[in-house]
Amino acid sequence: MRLIVALLVDFVLWLGIDIFSSGSYTSHPRRDSNKTLPLCVVNDDGLSCSYNGLCVRSNCNTQETHCLCDPGWKGMYCEALDLVPVANGSGLQDLLTQNRTSTWGGSVLFDQGVYHMFFSELAHHCGIHRWISHSVVSHAVSAGPEDNWKFHKTKTLLPIFSHEPIVTRDPSTGELGLFVSHYPHGSAADDNDSTCHCVDGSTSSALEKRCIHEPGLGHNKTMYTYFTTAHQPTGPWSPLQSLEHETPEGQKRFDLNFAPLILPTTNRSLSLLAWTRWDIWTATDWKNPHTYVRQGPAPNFSNPHAQWEGEDPSLWRDSKGRFHILSHNGPRGIGGPEGDCGRHLFSATGQAGSWLAAPLPLGGCAFPRVNVSFVDGSSRTFYRRERPHLIFGPHGRPAALSTSVIDSPVGPGVPGFQPPQRDASYTLVQATHTGRHFDSTASEKDSC
Ligand SMILES: *[C@@H]1O[C@H](CO)[C@@H](O)[C@H](O)[C@H]1NC(C)=O
Ligand SMILES: *[C@@H]1O[C@H](CO)[C@@H](O)[C@H](O)[C@H]1NC(C)=O
Ligand SMILES: *[C@@H]1O[C@H](CO)[C@@H](O)[C@H](O)[C@H]1NC(C)=O
Ligand SMILES: *[C@@H]1O[C@H](CO)[C@@H](O)[C@H](O)[C@H]1NC(C)=O
Ligand SMILES: *[C@@H]1O[C@H](CO)[C@@H](O)[C@H](O)[C@H]1NC(C)=O
Ligand SMILES: *[C@@H]1O[C@H](CO)[C@@H](O)[C@H](O)[C@H]1NC(C)=O
Ligand SMILES: *[C@@H]1O[C@H](CO)[C@@H](O)[C@H](O)[C@H]1NC(C)=O
Ligand SMILES: *[C@@H]1O[C@H](CO)[C@@H](O)[C@H](O)[C@H]1NC(C)=O
């Protein structure tokens, strides 16, 4: 069976037929005329295919190789998510409802047939520029693909200031950890009176003139990572606990972008691995702040394919135990693959100094920000598309991508921009291709 699959691939390639873009495999090797791009390496356990596939020989008579990507992935190095056009209204689009509320991305957990999203929401109908003074954390649910990935808010869980939630499950106990950036005494802004009252989800609609700018972090205020635990995604959630103890070098920490992953307790020396946009952290007991240790930058800078990671990470572990990061990186508002778009990084161990990216500029685009296709045939370019989180379905495979977006192609620095900026934002969910059957766990590594 394995051999037949591999032979079929070789045969089809030999005939020069492209079954990949429409058929049963997720990837087609771009027959790239750019000879400077390295070919993938067979029998490397998928390392040169970003740990999202396996490298095979394209033809038994040549040394040419290509990546066969796992479901949900595509690209020359399986560095890109294999996304379908966005269903209209998918995700959490609360700007066009009577609610007129901006949201800023969500972390999603599948539990007993329901997708639970934990997301940042901007209070008082303001936009994402007021995140430091207005962000709260809320919960929403979806039936997933059967409901076009529409999410429905249930309630607000954490007050101002709570931001960038990430939910993760302890694989040993089933317990949930919800990690957020938090300031426990209300607005974390430097304004003396930082509460604004907006109208349409954008900050420029504020009734108070002073509310036009993006506030900074207030004097003597902090944005530490906190966490809360629950046994069900619907709660009840425990009181927030600070991870402040684990920051020996400074009083103030802000916008930690803390992206945790709780690991099975089979390895007692490691209970949690996290990435904060700058550094890898580990903990031997994820519930004990005193066990958190900063390990240093994630990328392996001694490798020429190392890339700076970008911002807004999320982290997962694949079925073979390798570690993956999604982030966004690149100059904001600039088009093309070297502008800001999704980035994918990968590592066999997750350790600091071990993370790599595909050998493309900035590691390639894991998901686009420009010309995003919608099912109605339209396409949209977002000024910002950030906070990527993969949504895993019942089979543990990537089922969809959740991101925050500003639905305007222009912003400061982009030609055509006129102030005031509309910073109204929502949470977009875009499904991956499903029903494709190649799986690197079941394939022949090299049939020749
Ligand atoms: C998509 O949704 C928007 C907002 O609800 C609506 O204005 C638009 O007509 C919809 N487009 C289609 C093709 O349904
Ligand atoms: C709008 O707000 C109402 C009341 O809070 C809520 O029931 C509804 O789900 C919200 N709409 C969306 C799209 O979340
Ligand atoms: C806050 O109040 C102080 C003291 O009254 C004043 O000096 C400062 O300018 C105010 N800051 C802002 C942002 O309004
Ligand atoms: C700063 O915060 C610390 C700890 O909460 C507090 O003891 C101190 O009084 C604060 N300082 C000012 C100037 O607010
Ligand atoms: C357990 O964790 C330690 C510390 O990160 C790591 O060095 C070691 O390789 C891990 N062992 C296994 C079997 O995963
Ligand atoms: C986006 O689409 C426009 C119009 O088709 C095209 O001119 C532009 O090159 C595209 N940009 C990218 C980055 O693909
Ligand atoms: C970093 O890359 C170098 C060169 O490829 C390699 O020898 C080394 O083992 C890597 N370090 C880690 C921690 O993976
Ligand atoms: C060829 O590959 C190099 C290295 O990744 C890249 O910088 C360059 O833009 C590529 N050229 C073309 C025409 O794709």
TrEMBL record:
Signal peptide: 1-16
Listed InterPro entries: EGF, Glyco_hydro_beta-prop_sf
Ranges for domain EGF-like: 67-78
Transmembrane segments: none
Annotated keywords: Signal
Keyword Signal attributed: yes
Superkingdom: Eukaryota
Keyword Signal appears in the UniProt entry: yes
Protein name (Swiss-Prot/TrEMBL): EGF-like domain-containing protein
